[in-house]
């Protein structure tokens, strides 16, 4: 903006005059600014409320399923032996537990040495060697340590700790105390020398352990024996023995992996088999009531989450699926696409009749034309004349630029880069004039809901569990087994489905079919060893045996992991060769401390209901129980008693109602808010005349009223309230919240804006209802399954009601209860309008300032002339 100097001659306050002259423009701009500010506050209010509603929506999602209410509590007959927590899957009843063995960490107490303090060096202990190479092995991990004659006891402790052990030197008793950080055999440790000096240093430190000394003067657990066993009379023979061990190790681990995979599939197939039979029975029951429902349901199952936005149309005995697209026809109607078996795309248009609140569907034709758009992306009104690489529009000539394909306006032979035409192929979709309304089209989501709602609660629960199990198994992939393996997912799936259809694994007819045939297949047809469970257990045992055999040759594991004939393999083989040769030397020359004591790492072992379990810790998670072993029981069993946690179920219902109440109360308050009357957002000038407290009070008055009597808010509230007031039929009897002593207080008794909140009779935390009879807890104690079923269905109704309000539309995004898209567009339009008015104000100001400048200039000249004339008379 140019510098404005005015009023210097006339003495007028030009700025004030101009400001007054454009005040009507400024008022219009401020009007839009206030409207935009109010819209922004409204967006913020909706965002805050939407976050809370979505949180409720997410939380009640889990409440639709029985697992949310399968809360358990448990007690142990002897809490000094074990503690137990019960998860939702834990069976009710009493179980027997024996703790046969506690897990222990490996622990070493060193022999007494002559180190008076932590600063004593190895040299002072009589060590005279050079670099002492040590190896600390924990499970499958090995770390190297290097000590020297100048290393102190503190240095040794530090190196052992860095290697992953707990270590300490006690100068009072002149011993090292070393242990592994975790319990279990797999976490035990050994410390050995990698060279003669290393073995000598360990002896000087009093931690050279070789087991108990025998009467023959040897040691029972010489740590160098394992590597030394691979030693041959020559390096070539040693290499051959090492490679033979690698081959054996690979065969054992490969076979173990295969058998473990087979065992896992068989165990999973048992659950799949029963679930598959249950699911087929439900399909048959559906078809008995309405033929073809099972085929429709199977299609809808495959669609899964994509049911939203999809349509289905019966085509003979199957269904065509139309998926919603972002395309529209020439009149703006949304298109749905179906891809046939030949991979051809077909489209239908959804034509909405807003007056009748209906939608009709018509086939559309697809055509392609040349589209011409200007530099702003707008279609040209007139079709250009095309001659070669030149376009002519009126008296303008455009020429094609091969680098970007655009046609630029030509001026004196030069391209004007600001004015161009883009030529493209545009695909259009048109409803034929004689197109007939396609009948029989269904919303995939609605069709699915209709079928699901036709099931009783028990069938619905069985269906959900069976479908989830079936889909999980059929979707699982074999990473070890080939598809042709007898126990691959594909093979087991086919075998179970064949059995249900009355066929053997090769497709031949058998005497039974259906659920009975599947159960016979799983049980072994009279021979238990052929049953899936026994086969799985046998394979698991064989895999365990192979794994143990492979562990006996674990020293070649690293070498076995490398590609044979690679440089890495050759290097690793040579390194192992050196280690074997060193171990062979140390086996015969290393000295061991006879006083050192070592407690081996030990796995825990328990028996639950007579079944043995082992682990490297004292914690177990078995069939919904989390068991923490504290002490051995020997052969004396302790009992674990599990039952339904009625208080937990009560608290689950109460927590749900509390969250619902908080949100519905806030909605009610927003909807019933006092009117802000003529209050409008303040301009900067208006704020300058008020204190911060006055501004805050003013704006709060407006913000509190933004959603007052809002139709969208009212619609959401009504949907939620209707869902909560709905009745649920269980076992032929209808129940509602009031059946369990849960109701609102009503307009006369409730606090302001809390008339829609629910209260539980007998709730000790609720002053309004604490004195009434607690029907909810009584119902839970009497029939917890019935209460759970009711809450599942009620949660489902509320979840669906909120979900319907959160569906994506042209005005709102998915999972949003308000028209966020529309508001965003309005906000952008306000920004554009405000800028336009700012430009108008600036233009008008420039106009008036220019006029005043001309007046000032004229007055300056007049004054100069008058001065000149006056000089003649002076």
Automatic annotation (TrEMBL):
Keyword Coiled coil carried by entry: yes
All residue ranges annotated as the Flagellar hook-associated protein 2 C-terminal domain in the record: 601-864
Domain called Flagellar hook-associated protein 2 N-terminal: residue spans: 10-105
GO CC annotations on file: bacterial-type flagellum filament cap; bacterial-type flagellum hook; extracellular region
Key words of the record: Bacterial flagellum, Cell projection, Cilium, Coiled coil, Flagellum, Secreted
Function text: Required for morphogenesis and for the elongation of the flagellar filament by facilitating polymerization of the flagellin monomers at the tip of growing filament. Forms a capping structure, which prevents flagellin subunits (transported through the central channel of the flagellum) from leaking out without polymerization at the distal end.
The protein's name: Flagellar hook-associated protein 2
Phylogenetic placement of the source organism: Bacteria, Bacillati, Bacillota, Clostridia, Lachnospirales
């Amino acid at each position: 903006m140019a510098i404005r100097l005015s009023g210097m001659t006339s003495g007028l306050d030009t700025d004030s005059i101009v400001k007054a002259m454009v005040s009507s423009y400024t008022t219009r701009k401020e009007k839009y600014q206030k409207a935009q500010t109010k819209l922004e506050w409204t967006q913020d209010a909706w965002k805050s409320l939407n976050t809370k509603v979505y949180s409720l929506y997410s939380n009640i999602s889990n409440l639709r399923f029985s697992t949310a209410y399968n809360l358990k509590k448990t007690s142990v007959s002897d809490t000094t032996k074990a503690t137990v927590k019960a998860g939702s899957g834990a069976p009710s009843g009493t179980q027997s537990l024996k703790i046969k063995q506690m897990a222990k960490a490996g622990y070493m107490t060193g022999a007494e040495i002559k180190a008076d303090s932590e600063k004593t060096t190895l040299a002072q202990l009589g060590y005279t060697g050079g670099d002492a190479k040590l190896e600390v092995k924990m499970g499958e991990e090995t770390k190297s340590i290097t000590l020297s004659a100048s290393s102190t006891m503190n240095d040794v402790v530090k190196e052992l700790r860095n290697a992953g052990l707990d270590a300490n030197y006690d100068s009072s008793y002149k011993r090292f105390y070393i242990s592994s950080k975790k319990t279990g055999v797999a976490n035990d440790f050994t410390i050995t020398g990698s060279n003669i000096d290393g073995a000598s240093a360990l002896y000087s430190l009093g931690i050279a352990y070789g087991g108990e000394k025998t009467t023959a003067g040897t040691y029972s657990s010489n740590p160098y024996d394992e590597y030394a066993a691979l030693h041959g009379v020559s390096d070539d023979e040693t290499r051959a023995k090492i490679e033979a061990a690698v081959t054996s190790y690979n065969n054992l681990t490969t076979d173990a992996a295969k058998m473990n995979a087979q065992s896992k599939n068989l165990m999973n197939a048992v659950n799949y088999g029963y679930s598959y039979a249950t699911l087929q029975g439900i399909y048959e029951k559906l078809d008995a009531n309405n033929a073809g429902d099972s085929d429709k349901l199977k299609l809808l199952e495959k669609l899964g989450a994509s049911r939203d936005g999809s349509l289905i149309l019966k085509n003979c005995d199957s269904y065509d699926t139309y998926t919603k697209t972002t395309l529209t026809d020439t009149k703006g109607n949304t298109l749905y696409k179906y891809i046939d078996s030949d991979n051809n795309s077909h489209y239908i248009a959804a034509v909405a009749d807003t007056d009748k609140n209906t939608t009709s569907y018509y086939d559309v034709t697809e055509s392609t034309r040349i589209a011409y758009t200007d530099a702003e992306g707008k279609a040209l009104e007139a079709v250009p004349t095309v001659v070669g690489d030149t376009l002519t529009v009126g008296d303008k000539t455009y020429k094609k630029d091969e680098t970007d394909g655009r046609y630029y306006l030509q001026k004196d032979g030069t391209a004007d880069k600001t004015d161009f035409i883009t030529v493209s192929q545009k695909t259009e979709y048109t409803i034929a004039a004689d197109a007939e309304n396609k009948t029989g089209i269904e919303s995939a989501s609605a069709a699915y809901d209709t079928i699901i709602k036709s099931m009783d609660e028990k069938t619905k629960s069985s269906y959900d569990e069976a479908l989830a199990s079936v889909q999980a198994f059929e979707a699982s992939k074999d990473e070890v087994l080939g598809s042709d393996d007898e126990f691959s997912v594909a093979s087991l799936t086919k075998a179970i489905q064949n059995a249900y259809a009355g066929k053997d694994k090769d497709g031949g007819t058998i005497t039974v079919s259906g659920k009975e045939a599947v159960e016979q297949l799983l049980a072994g047809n009279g021979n238990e060893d052929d049953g899936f469970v026994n086969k799985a257990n046998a394979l698991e045992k064989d895999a365990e045996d192979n794994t143990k055999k492979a562990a006996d040759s674990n020293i070649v594991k690293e070498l076995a992991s490398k590609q044979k004939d690679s440089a890495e393999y050759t290097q690793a083989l040579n390194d192992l060769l050196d280690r074997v040769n060193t171990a062979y030397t140390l086996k015969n020359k290393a000295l061991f401390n006879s006083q050192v004591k070592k407690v081996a790492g030990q796995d825990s072992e328990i028996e639950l209901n007579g079944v043995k379990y082992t682990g490297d810790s004292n914690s177990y998670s078995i069939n919904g129980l989390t068991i923490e072993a504290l002490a051995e029981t020997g052969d004396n069993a302790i009992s674990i008693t599990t039952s339904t946690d009625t208080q937990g179920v009560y608290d689950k219902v109460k927590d749900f109602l509390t969250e619902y109440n908080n949100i519905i109360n806030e909605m009610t308050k927003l909807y019933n808010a006092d009117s802000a009357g003529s209050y409008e957002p303040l301009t900067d000038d208006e704020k300058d005349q008020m204190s911060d407290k006055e501004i805050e009070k003013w704006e709060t008055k407006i913000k509190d009223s933004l959603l007052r009597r809002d139709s969208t808010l009212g619609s959401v509230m009504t949907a939620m309230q209707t869902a909560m007031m709905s009745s649920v039929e269980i076992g032929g009897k209808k129940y509602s919240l009031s059946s369990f002593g849960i109701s609102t207080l009503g307009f006369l008794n409730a606090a302001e804006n809390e008339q829609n909140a629910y209260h539980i009779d007998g709730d000790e935390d609720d002053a309004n209802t604490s004195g009434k009879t607690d029907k909810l807890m009584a119902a839970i104690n009497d029939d917890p399954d019935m209460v759970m079923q009711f809450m599942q269905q009620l949660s489902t109704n509320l979840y669906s009601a909120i979900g319907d309000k959160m569906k994506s539309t042209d005005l709102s995004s998915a999972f949003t209860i308000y028209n966020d898209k529309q508001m965003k567009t309005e906000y952008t339009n306000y920004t554009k309008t405000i800028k336009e008015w700012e430009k108008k104000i600036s233009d008008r100001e420039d106009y008036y300032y220019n006029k005043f400048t001309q007046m000032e200039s004229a007055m300056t000249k007049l004054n100069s002339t008058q001065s000149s004339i006056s000089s003649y008379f002076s």
